[in-house]
Write a structure and sequence with these properties.
Blueprint lengths: L4 H9 L6 H11 L1 H10 L1 H8 L3 H8 L3 H13 L3 E4 L18 E6 L8 E6 L5 H16 L3 E4 L5 H10 L5 E4 L13 H9 L3 E4 L11 H12 L2 E5 L6 H11 L3 E5 L9 H8 L3 E2 L3 H8 L11 H7 L30 H8 L3 H13 L3 E4 L2 E4 L2
Parallel strand pairs: 3-4, 3-7, 4-5, 5-6, 7-8, 8-9
Antiparallel strand pairs: 1-2, 2-6, 10-11
Helix pairs in contact: 2-3, 3-4, 3-5, 7-8, 7-13, 10-11
Length: 378
Amino acid sequence: MEKSTIHYWLALKLIPRLAIHKKLALIDSYGLMALFSLSQKNPTVLTSANNLTTKQLAAFHQPDWPFIDDIIKDSEACGSKIITYDDELYPQQLKQIYDPPLVLFVKGNAQLLNNMQIAIVGSRAASVNGREAAFDIAQQLAEQGLVITSGLALGIDAAAHKGTLTTVKGTIAVVATGLDKVYPARHKLLAKQIEAKQGAIVSEFLPGTSPKSGHFPKRNRIISGLSKGVLVVEAALKSGSLITARCALEQNREVFSVPGGINNPLTKGCHWLIKQGAKLVESAADIIEELSIDEKSELHLNHEQQLLAKRPTIKAVKNLNNDLCNEALLASVGFEITPVDKVVSRSELPIEEVLTRLIMLELSGLVAAVPGGYLRLP
């Protein structure tokens, strides 16, 4: 069977231990298909000029075409498209990074990949305040035409995706597994909702690939690479979100950060980023302003919209995710001062029960009564 361009890109992807930038340099020098024929006709040209190992040269000389056929079949079976580096659907923003993936597997709306994107990332163990902030800012940005990109993880990622799903704009989830798997498994419904709402799920990993710790930093560079900027909402000092922020800086992307209470350990990474020069963000308007969107752009905020965007980013939790109603009352009290009516709204419990349980939490040393409400203690 005649081999397609996709076959050759996959064959190049499978060359072992050869950096992506070196593979792209070889294409610039010889051409994609010529690389594989050259390895047969004149292998010394490749080895002498490019320091290829015996295994690498063998992979050029005899690609595993049956395995590559299986990859293409498996991709089709799970409903994904294969988008190669030279495809017109390949995101141009991603081509700007040092090590862009040669092949992307995409489920859903691949056209979305070349839209202007903002990444929103943060802690998996996010507080209710953090999830609400991510949800609201994602919703505000999506309403102004930006695509929200994140990693389908628990916590902040999920809240950002869900905030976008309330609008007509699709959201992009970049994952660290093959597209025949969903990680975490509890987000299978969320993944289906993203596809159904004209969003996209993206991976550079072959179908059948399970989640591994080393895959997530690779995933993170794609999240930041696709985006004009990265917003970090709640992140510890040692977290994957700061890896994404570092990738963004290396890729010359903007970095934004949402501050939080000084006693909240999940905001330490955000405060560190702000100290390093990240833009402090309280609402979508702060990001729009930094990106200097042209007045004629669909993303431009008029005066009324700016006032709207500057409203507090904390909404009742029932507008974020009905699942939060099942959380313990403690999760409804933030590390910032939380009014009692806010706790009632978040927990959806009768006020009498809320007051009783808050007193019990106070006696247990978990919260403190302060002017204006309650404060969660670290």
